[in-house]
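Page 42, continued from yesterday. The earlier attempt failed because a stray header line got pasted into the input along with the sequence. Redoing it now with the clean sequence only.
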Amino acid sequence: MARIAFIVANDFEDSEFSVPFEKVKQAGHEAVIIGVEAGKVLKGKKGSEITTEKAVKDLKAADFNALVIPGGYSPDHLRMDIKMVGFVRDFFKADKPIAAICHGPWMLVEADIADGHTVTSFPSIKTDLINANARWVDREVVEDGNLITSRKPDDLEAFSAAVLRQVQNGIAPRIGTPQAAESNVDRAPPMH
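This time it went through. Structure tokens are written below.
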């Protein structure tokens, strides 16, 4: 059984938390809700409520096998907390799966781990990821090493399956270069 961290703050996208959370539990793994504070009731964008079980300051990445970052406005709140950003970075350094959907990849930018990776996200943060030197592609799910990214709630089946696959089988191979063609679309030529 794996132990999987879900980092969440207010205004999370309800289904982007609940679907992978339930799939992880159905697969027999432990899913732990982590926030800036323990025992805090958080509200989703569509009204669902969850309660954080653990505070990030009391945890370390070594206690978990993988990390899930639901989207909505939650990642924007979480990236303001230095301990949360360090927690995410530590998963990356330990080569453990990090799954971020929708606006979740904002945390990858904040933790300075998107650089050189191929990712996807909700289209509104595409420029943020490109500016962080990531290669952005428009796909249902992208697995580049230990980074798993998806765009929106419609991608949740593929996203959840990728999380469970990496927990069971180990991380995916790195995509590396050359850049996928769609990552260069809309990119201005370099200034000289």
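Notes: The radius of gyration is 16 Å.
Reminder to self: strip header lines before submitting.
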